[in-house]
Hints:
By secondary structure, this protein is an alpha+beta fold. It has helices at residues 51-60, 93-115; strands at 36-39, 46-49, 65-68, 79-81, 86-88. Bound molecules: zinc ion (2 copies). Residues 18, 20, 30, 32, 49-50, 52-53 line the site of one zinc ion. One zinc ion binds next to strand 5.
Amino acid sequence: MQPFAPLGRNLDHRGQKCSYSPGDTDTTDCPADATWHILWTTELDNGFACDPHMAVARERFVFVDSHQVGPDCGMPGRVWHYTQKRCLHPDEPSTRRAAVALLEPAAGARQDGAQQ
Ligand SMILES: [Zn+2]
Ligand SMILES: [Zn+2]
């Protein structure tokens, strides 16, 4: 089975609704408020899930990280914060440091590949 969740169409995440949508259309969208924010890829593709659909995601799909939905989740310009397990706005200095830290492993991996 395909281990990666279908990302589907771009949704407006500001409502923080569960983005589980089996048919990927408005009529199949889960109507529940999301309780979890899921980071699907390191390119920051992300989605929202209610408790039952978070359970489905944990069972069926690989994802990078997840945290419980907070006030900044889904807001434009927010940054995914791994260690604090939440989304933060990048205007905060602590968020900027974390965002830089996120970029370093990928750059290091590319350098390693070039040297071998
Ligand atoms: Zn749901
Ligand atoms: Zn979040």
